């Protein structure tokens, strides 16, 4: 057991972990399963978009030169030679004095260089062999040109982007029935401590139910990983090492909770001295979660979060989420911080930066960070409310209401307006 540990800042610790991680390999998925996945490669347009010159309106394709004398009072009359529905190919090239009745999305006939909408013609409700054009058209007016939005061969989505509804529209447009995505990280999940009982079990003296595993499982899935649940780790070093060594073969990362401090049964803390283990960090200048530990076992990462639920939650956001983003091929955005005004003074002194769970609100159009004062590391009743981590810098004074603070947003804010 190490009582003297080398301290790292949050940034140093995160970098030490990220430096050991690589993006996982890719796999093919059907477009129906692709929502939310991360693109492994740039996506290239397989055709021009639109793929042909088309009409953006319901109306008549005309030759602009035929309309130069058209007015509302004296419409120019043109002979309607054909009707083209969207999806049909026009067969009659347009000659002088002629027009083609054309629908939105339909292919332009050869010879036409403008489209006039029904509403700007005589008797728009009638289908007739002659159309009266009531205004002068410019050549090129109301035509969506082939390739005007996207040229064939251009990059339309980039590797590392998350596939959302708009990306799916692109993939469908360009005929991608399947797509290469980064494999989801498989994350082995375990807890430590014989005080833990299952959700379905009755409480007996000294015991609590295991809440971290269920919480972490959801956080892992939300961050794009696949949680793989393992049994509670034995609290003897040899037994724990044997299990961890076996489990880590099956996953891309192990995340555990508990056993990282200096207690007699804190088994992860003892493991860091094992010759087969490469320690990345086990003491961080932060509250809560200062004993958060990371190590490599068989060359793969183990992230050991504190057992205290509040510290476990914060440790996940600060270390596990970016680690999953790295393995999952995403840009690491979870540490992008913004500034907000502190809503209520936080005056508790702390020698290390404190990552306070909180909510974001707006007041008079400005962002307000509202700390959760239920911030004892062992508490869990308000984890559900957390939208961000509010960084209170180290030092004796804390921060006063109205001062600017750094905020790491980790969940979609509800943007409540403070009154
Ligand atoms: N002498 C010292 N004691 C402690 C120190 C210290 O520096 N010196 N650090 C404290 C800090 S800070 C933290 S954080 C905790 C870290 O504890 P561990 O990671 O070793 O976790 P455990 O000892 O296993 O458990 C702590 C607490 O959390 C509960 N727990 C554990 N697992 C779960 C779970 N899966 N679901 C719900 N709750 C869980 C456990 O019952 C304990 O109450 O150490 C301090 N001590
Ligand atoms: O570092 Mo601990 O999570 O404060 O209790
Ligand atoms: Mg402990």
UniProtKB/TrEMBL annotation:
Catalytic activity from the UniProt record: adenylyl-molybdopterin + molybdate = Mo-molybdopterin + AMP + H(+)
GO BP: any one term: Mo-molybdopterin cofactor biosynthetic process
Entry-linked Pfam families: MoCF_biosynth, MoeA_C, MoeA_N
Enzyme class: transferase
Domain MoaB/Mog as annotated: residue spans: 188-326
SMART domains on file: MoCF_biosynth (SM00852)
An example Gene Ontology molecular-function term: metal ion binding
Keyword Transmembrane: no
Keywords, in A-Z order: Magnesium, Metal-binding, Molybdenum, Molybdenum cofactor biosynthesis, Transferase
Origin superkingdom: Bacteria
Record flagged with keyword Nucleus: no
UniProt-listed InterPro entries: MoaB/Mog-like_dom_sf, MoaB/Mog_dom, MoeA-like, MoeA_C_domain_IV, MoeA_C_domain_IV_sf, MoeA_linker/N, MoeA_linker/N_sf
Family under the similarity heading: Belongs to the MoeA family.
Function, in words: Catalyzes the insertion of molybdate into adenylated molybdopterin with the concomitant release of AMP.
Official protein name in the record: Molybdopterin molybdenumtransferase
């Amino acid at each position: 057991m190490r009582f003297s540990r080398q301290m790292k800042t949050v940034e140093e610790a995160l970098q030490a972990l990220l430096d050991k991680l690589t993006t996982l390999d890719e796999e093919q998925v059907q477009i129906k399963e692709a929502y939310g996945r991360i693109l492994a490669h740039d996506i290239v347009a397989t055709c021009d978009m639109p793929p042909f010159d088309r009409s953006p309106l319901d109306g008549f394709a005309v030759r602009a030169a035929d309309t130069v004398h058209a007015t509302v009072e004296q419409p120019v009359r043109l002979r309607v030679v054909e009707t083209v529905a969207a999806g049909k190919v026009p067969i009659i090239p347009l000659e002088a004095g002629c027009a083609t009745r054309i629908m939105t999305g339909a292919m332009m006939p050869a010879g036409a260089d403008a489209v006039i909408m029904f509403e700007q013609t005589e008797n728009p409700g009638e289908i007739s062999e002659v159309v009266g054009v009531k205004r002068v058209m410019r050549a090129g007016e109301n035509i969506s040109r082939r390739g005007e939005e996207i040229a064939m061969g251009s990059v339309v989505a980039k590797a590392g982007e998350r596939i959302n509804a708009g990306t799916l529209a692109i993939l469908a447009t360009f005929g991608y029935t399947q797509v290469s995505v980064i494999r989801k990280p498989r994350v082995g999940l375990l807890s430590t401590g014989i005080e833990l009982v299952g959700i379905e079990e009755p409480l007996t003296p000294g015991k609590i139910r295991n809440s971290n595993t269920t919480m972490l499982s959801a956080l892992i899935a939300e961050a794009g990983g696949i949680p793989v649940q393992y049994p509670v780790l034995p609290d003897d070093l040899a037994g724990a090492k044997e299990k961890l060594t076996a489990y880590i073969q099956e996953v891309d990362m192990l995340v555990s909770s508990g056993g990282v401090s200096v207690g007699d049964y804190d088994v992860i803390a003892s493991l860091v001295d094992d010759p087969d283990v490469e320690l990345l960090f086990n003491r961080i200048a932060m509250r809560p979660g200062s004993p958060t530990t990371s190590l490599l076992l068989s060359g793969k990462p183990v992230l050991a979060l504190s057992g205290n639920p509040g510290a476990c939650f914060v440790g996940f956001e600060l270390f596990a989420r970016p680690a999953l983003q790295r393995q999952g091929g995403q840009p690491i955005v979870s540490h992008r911080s913004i500034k907000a005004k502190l809503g209520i003074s936080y005056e508790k002194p702390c020698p290390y930066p404190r990552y306070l769970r909180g909510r974001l609100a707006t007041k008079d159009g400005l962002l307000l960070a509202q700390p959760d004062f239920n911030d004892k590391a062992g508490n869990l009743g308000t984890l559900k409310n957390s939208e961000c981590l509010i960084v209170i810098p180290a030092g004796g004074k804390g921060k006063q209401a109205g001062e600017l603070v750094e905020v790491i947003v980790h969940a979609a804010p509800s943007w409540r307006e403070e009154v």
